[in-house]
């Protein structure tokens, strides 16, 4: 199956329209007496929109993105966008497993670029040049330049699409897979569905089992599940509306760039390990590059499909391939006990709780995470 080179080229008319909308933004006032007490702080949003309008250089960001080899291929009748970056490897060094890196929501392939740099050219970052991997980074179906699938957007369906990319399109006999959030769940499905082709998986959000019925919950498991349910009472509103009224929400966000930025920034601030200041974890230009990609591709609505179609997911089989976890530091992961992951995975070979790096760890702690990926996947022979 052939694939075609792809380059990001946003029409100037689209950018002109974006600037006009940003210039005419109507802002709200704060609901409470403290910044960020009721969602995105209006003062922060006002400053971000002003910078987006007059300071952010999309063409420079576009050029940085286009420095990475990009392609599109048709799978299941839909276009899939992906990066394919070859390793910078010394002559005679043995080939490593090719790696598939999958982002989640509300993210994009941009999240994985710091990892791409460190995995394909480790010598540039002070690591062993022989530990270089070929890396594939897709835009998940429905995100960015990848079209939404025809049928229900289930985790298994996404896994089948990415497996076809790695095997039928790119010709890999075996590969390793990494992901976080939705990309992490899909990574788990890849390991469960294709143990003969997936050499191992690495995730920052350990998986739940298909069922907890195999044995009684431990005290640690029960405490975590209770805490997670309590946290969801304060954080779960976004998923509830995206899973029940996605088109209503998308109508607003597809029409207002400031509204789109607010919806995404709310999660970046809450879920990163930022010590109260988002800039400590994700710089403003990177954040706006991701938000702008959602805007110019018009894919915020299709990125919600995985939530609307959640009921179509079936129980995932056990994951029997070698598994590694570098557990994210974010509220929903606090106190996550290893025994929950052991209910889902039969061969956990690495478990790390570094105490730093949140939901978007490839952006937040790329050196730490790249080192863990090199160590784990380097131990798995091609």
Automatic annotation (TrEMBL):
All residue ranges annotated as the Epoxide hydrolase N-terminal domain in the record: 4-112
InterPro entries in alphabetical order: AB_hydrolase_fold, Epox_hydrolase-like, Epoxide_hydro_N, Epoxide_hydrolase
Pfam hit, one: EHN
Documented EC number(s): 3.-.-.-
Molecular function GO terms recorded: hydrolase activity
Family membership: Belongs to the peptidase S33 family.
Name of the featured protein: Epoxide hydrolase family protein
Organism: Micromonospora zhanjiangensis
């Amino acid at each position: 199956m052939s694939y075609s080179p792809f380059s990001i080229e946003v029409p100037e008319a689209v950018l002109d329209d974006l600037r006009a909308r940003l210039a005419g933004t109507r802002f709200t006032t704060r609901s409470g007496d403290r910044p960020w007490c009721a969602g995105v702080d209006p003062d922060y949003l006002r400053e971000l929109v002003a910078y987006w309008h007059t300071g952010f250089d999309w063409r420079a960001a576009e050029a940085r993105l286009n420095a990475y080899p990009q392609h599109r291929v048709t799978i299941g009748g839909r276009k899939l966008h992906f990066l394919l970056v070859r390793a910078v490897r010394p002559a005679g060094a043995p080939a490593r497993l090719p790696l598939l890196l999958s982002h989640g929501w509300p993210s994009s392939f941009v999240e994985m670029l710091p990892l791409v740099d460190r995995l394909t050219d480790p010598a540039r970052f002070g690591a062993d040049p022989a530990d270089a991997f070929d890396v594939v980074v897709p835009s998940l179906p429905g995100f960015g330049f990848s079209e939404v699938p025809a049928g229900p957007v289930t985790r298994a369906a996404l896994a089948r699409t990415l497996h076809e990319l790695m095997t039928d399109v790119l010709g890999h006999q075996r590969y390793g897979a990494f992901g976080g959030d939705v990309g992490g769940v899909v990574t788990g499905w890849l390991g469960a569905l294709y143990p003969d082709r997936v050499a191992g998986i690495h995730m920052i959000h350990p998986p739940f089992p298909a069922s907890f019925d195999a044995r009684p919950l431990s005290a640690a498991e029960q405490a975590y599940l209770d805490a997670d349910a309590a946290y969801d009472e304060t954080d779960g509103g976004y998923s509830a509306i995206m899973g029940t009224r996605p088109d209503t929400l998308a109508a607003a966000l597809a029409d207002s760039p400031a509204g789109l930025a607010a919806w995404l920034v709310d999660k970046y601030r809450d879920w990163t390990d930022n010590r109260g200041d988002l800039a400590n974890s994700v710089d403003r230009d990177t954040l706006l590059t991701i938000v702008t990609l959602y805007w110019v591709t018009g894919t915020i609505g299709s990125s919600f499909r995985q939530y609307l179609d959640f009921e179509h997911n079936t129980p995932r089989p056990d994951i029997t391939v070698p598994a590694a976890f570098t557990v994210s530091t974010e509220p929903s992961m606090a106190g996550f006990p290893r025994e929950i992951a052991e209910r889902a995975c039969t061969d956990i070979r690495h478990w790390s709780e570094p105490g730093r790096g949140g939901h978007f760890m490839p952006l937040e702690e790329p050196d730490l995470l790249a080192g863990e990926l090199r160590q784990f996947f380097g131990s798995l022979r091609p």
